[in-house]
Amino acid sequence: MNSPHTPGIVANRLDAETLAQNFADLHAPLTTHEAAVAADRCYFCHDAPCITACPTDIDIPLFIRQISTGTPEAAAKTIFEQNILGGMCARVCPTEDLCEQACVRELAEGKPVEIGRLQRYATDTLINKGGMPFARAAPTGKTVAVVGAGPAGLSCAHRLSMLGHDVTIFDSNQKPGGLNEYGIAAYKSTDDFAAKEIAWLCSIGGITIETGKALGAELSLDGLADAYDAVFLGVGLGGVNALSVEGAEKAVVADAVSLIKELRQTDDLASLPVGRNVLVIGGGMTAVDAAVQSKLLGAETVTIAYRRGREAMSASRYEQDLAATNGVKLMFNVMPKAIHGNGATAEIELEYTATKDGKLQGTGETVRLPADQIFRAIGQSLTMDAGLSLEGGKIAVTGAGRTSRSGVWAGGDCAAGGDDLTVTAVAEGRDAAMDIHATLMEGA
Length: 444
Description:
alpha/beta, 5-stranded parallel β-sheet, FAD/NAD(P)-binding domain, Fumarate Reductase Iron-sulfur Protein, Chain B, domain 2, 35% helix, globular
């Protein structure tokens, strides 16, 4: 984040009690009674559209029925069989655009079954009891290296361990978890849940995690391929796209990912500096997370500036409404033209946009807004270069994550073809693990 010595950007805008309230759990967990009432609304559809809408194919009617019959641990196992990170996905998954949007209750009444909260109720029940419902198969003698301890890598590692392989996960950060640990709003995952979920996941055994080791620095793909029977890459997208406008080099222009990472790791929210007038450039979930949290830290005005219309935003309508209800202003069809200020930022100049002949272009009309702190959330890029074929700036894959190099698979945000969702990364890691297993056991 920006230096607290930059004019206009200061710490302690709010007292500790207010900050604690602002960053409390976004959705309080359901009580047993509330879960029973919520589960009772499910029609238990035979050809349930919610299952089709779930990237991990969880049998949603089954786990809800198991909750309604008072067996949440069984419900959790049903979830974990398809999505071993079902606890985190229950917190961060855009269910309003996936399973809940497809719910028959949503179509008929405009109020879906609360699938996400019911999933959290079930998974938290089992994780809090410390039970691991899966056991390792007999050892195969095969070893697999997983690079990246994010959702894809963790999902892949757990499934490989279940199948009897020994897995070593390498991650460049000092803590495992990837975006679950570093990249989501603090109010979506409280009480250090990401770390607790990983500890529970690894309790199956056969998984070793080595942090502080990055591909290209401490590790090479050639070395891993020689030392292990297979390699899975779940490295995410480490680079943040630059802002190419006049004044973008000013110290108060930072990437939103760094803000979120610092928020997630601090023990003292009051110590984090925040501007009086904050502007976030972008239209995705990261932009919303950065904007809302800036407001919760005490910024007086926070604005999201997005170059296209509302319907084109990758952040869901729920996330857009969350921003608005927290006092964030959303501006559409504007793009940054210049950042003004003598040393520090004072204003940002935005140019209105329009789509003509299928191309987005500036109209020439501009507006200036006060902005002493600016965050860019305009996409991330792949930073590794391991000699693999690329597609659209990501690792090209076929089938269940097979890369252009034999013995190397990839999944999650770093792989082409996905939609950059945690739940999709989990599915890709799981499916790659099954394909790795089949390949390793050929002829066995």
